[in-house]
Design a protein that fits this description.
16 helices; Growth Hormone, Chain: A; mainly alpha
Length: 377
């Protein structure tokens, strides 16, 4: 019976993961070209917008209180619907303020889904299974990204931004509505505390989560912008890059989950942080269009290792703390996201290399602190 219920939850999260991946990847594939070529935004605008985009992530701790009135799996479905609405209306608001508005809606949906997605996975699957499940879901997301990348590559010469965004939004909303009428829950799952929790014994988890968020913002805000601005990638070229990237990650993500099970969180995270130091420094000096594409792919591969931070918490945390801690961790993850893209945008105006050097420094600090992880493999 337990395996059946686990399968139902896995199937439920898989469908919503596909919908969320299609929404975020579709939005990201079009975003830089839409922002640069339609709204004519500059580097400073991109930095500010990325900071605004992370406000919903910063407010993810409010999910703890929303769960007082809405069941967690229902909140997942509603979040995907909100994500679909945000993506679907983006093309109708081709202005600076319009993009801020639609981005906030999309981001609220995505971040609240990710919060509940991680929480439900850690609740329903044990310490030996959850790394595989998290890796598998990332692989499924990568496969979904391939599909939406191919779709955009094919239809972008024939459809407008309004039409493409609308099609994506309708599909995502449909998946969310389907999920609203499903019940994959298990009544025997241990009770989850429904208040904000901060515990001293989780300090290393909090710190690594904060640094991962800060480091990630440098990549999200400026790596693709560098590709479009400096190397003049078109919408179709961005779509091809995303397809190749996700094809690789479709196969590698589950293997990362298995690596965590076999070698442990400290080893996997050490490999990630050491590699990111090299990658960020390379972004600052790259002059080849093909090399920058390779750097982008490598960056994504090692980013998938970040699931080890969550499985690390599962090993040290109390089961009843999973839901509130995942919500709080999303807020911690996005503290730096509120100011780093904006500051990075101003630094970009001085020298575009500076934000990437900051990313390398953050990776070095993370590499040092991850050595403090003490868990059994």
């Amino acid at each position: 019976m337990k395996k059946i219920l686990q399968y139902k939850m896995y199937q439920y999260l898989m469908i919503l993961t596909i919908a969320a991946a299609v929404g975020l990847q579709g939005w990201r594939t079009l975003f830089d070209n839409f922002a640069v070529n339609v709204i004519f935004l500059k580097g400073m605008h991109i930095g500010i917008l990325q900071s605004i985009r992370e406000i919903p992530g910063f407010l993810a701790l409010l999910a703890v209180y929303i769960l007082l009135i809405i069941k967690e799996h229902k909140l997942s479905a509603i979040s995907v619907i909100v994500l679909g609405i945000g993506v679907g209306i983006t093309g109708f608001f081709p202005t600076w303020t319009g993009l801020i508005f639609t981005t906030l809606i999309m981001s609220f949906g995505f971040h609240y889904f990710e919060t509940t997605n991680q929480s439900l996975t850690l609740q329903y699957f044990d310490k030996k299974t959850s790394p595989w499940v998290l890796g598998k879901l990332r692989g499924i997301a990568a496969g979904s990204n391939i599909g939406v990348g191919i779709l955009i590559f094919i239809i972008s010469p024939y459809l407008t931004y309004i039409q493409i965004y609308s099609l994506l939004g309708i599909a995502i909303i449909g998946a969310g509505i389907w999920a609203l009428f499903q019940n994959p829950t298990d009544k025997n799952i241990p009770f989850q505390r429904k208040q904000m929790i901060l515990r001293k014994k989780y300090w290393l988890f909090y710190f690594l989560t904060f640094m991962a968020g800060a480091r990630r913002q440098i990549f999200i805000a400026f790596a693709v912008f560098l590709i479009v601005k400096k190397f003049c990638f078109s919408v179709q070229e961005i779509a091809v890059l995303f397809i190749i990237n996700n094809f690789i990650n479709f196969f590698l993500s589950p293997l990362i989950g298995k690596a965590i099970i076999k070698f442990g969180e400290r080893y996997v995270l050490s490999v990630e942080y050491f590699s990111l130091i090299i990658i960020f420094c390379s972004y600052a000096f790259v002059e080849s269009k093909y090399l920058v594409a390779i750097l982008y792919i490598l960056d994504h591969i090692f980013f998938n290792c970040a699931i080890a931070i969550r499985t690390f918490f599962q090993k040290i945390g109390d089961h009843a703390d999973i839901a509130p801690t995942m919500a709080v961790s999303f807020t911690i993850n996005h503290i730096a996201a509120i100011f780093i893209p904006t500051i990075g945008g101003f630094l970009w105006m001085i020298d575009y290399k500076i934000p990437f050097f900051f990313g390398a420094g953050m990776s070095l600090i993370s590499l040092i602190f991850v050595q403090l992880i003490k868990t059994d493999v």
